[in-house]
């Protein structure tokens, strides 16, 4: 898209807040993003922007590709009554997604309309990043820069995420009396995972971001329906720091495997961006102009930025209003003053990048 085309339009702070409250009020757990996507489409159409919902449900509003603002539409499940609480000097929006990541999503939509830059609201981030994976495959070219939307706080600039590898372990053993000393499939599963945990046990002084952390997320086991065997199935996840590759972590976990098989999926590489890119510099300047001191952030989880960094050779950061400690929490909430400030910061950043 031509950087000379003017796609900008005025968006008041009141209208940006209205979009935020509307989106938080529309339930949008993964797989049920359609109504929230339609509200975004209505917002862009009201400002004469080209916009559509693509084959997987992403909201696409292409314009000036000097920077792509993108965040996810879906939230985790959870019914938190939506209300705007009046406090002494601020208003607080309560509701699922207010932090992760409807706050960043709405802020980016408002900034994209104000400045005429490209925007995409993606689906499925909380489960398998279906939307971002489709986006990188469907776009003909990479944007010049990317700002991914996740809560960092209005003064935070997220530069790094750990990667992820997820797998399913399966083992089967002959059934027999529980007094027999031979290990059964359940014991084999537990022993393998214990060995993996020992393999990656970190030093107590080592930052979590620099460690491989291991987590079993589901386990099933017992005597089979025909009574002839004992079966065990365990779903596991390992987070991968930028110093390692997903392949190296997979090989190390497989090296501890003596009985059973493991099938790997969701192989997402880690990402660590430089603080000296033009995008990071633009954020530092914008945050200072808004009266705050910028913070550089590394997150121990994984986000769509990992997907973009693995596909596009361009500078990127992750940014958005909200306290990430409230991600998925039962008391998820966002100060509206912080939302307003983040819209202004995103607007400053987008204007800087489109003028360069």
Structure description:
This protein has 356 residues and is an alpha/beta fold. The protein contains nine helices and 16 strands. The strands form four sheets. It has a six-stranded mixed sheet, with helices on both faces. A four-stranded antiparallel sheet has the order 10-11-9-12. Strands 4-5-16 form a three-stranded antiparallel sheet. α7 packs across α9. It is elongated. It is found in: Cytoplasm.
CATH architecture of the largest domain: 3-Layer(aba) Sandwich
CA-atom Rg in angstroms: 23 Å
- Overall shape: elongated
Strand order of the largest sheet: 1-2-6-3-7-15
Terminal residue distance: 16 Å
Sheet having the most strands:
6 strands, mixed
Tally of domains: 2
The first-level CATH class of the largest domain is given as Alpha Beta
Low-confidence stretches: none
Proportion of strand residues:
25-35%
The overall pLDDT average reads: 95
What series of H and E elements makes up the topology? Answer: HHEEEEEHEHEEEHEEHEEHEHEEH
Number of helices: 9
Secondary structural class: alpha/beta
Instruction: Tell me the CATH superfamily of the largest domain.
Output: Zn peptidases
The count of β-strands is 16
Helix content: 25-40%
CATH topology assignment of the largest domain = Aminopeptidase
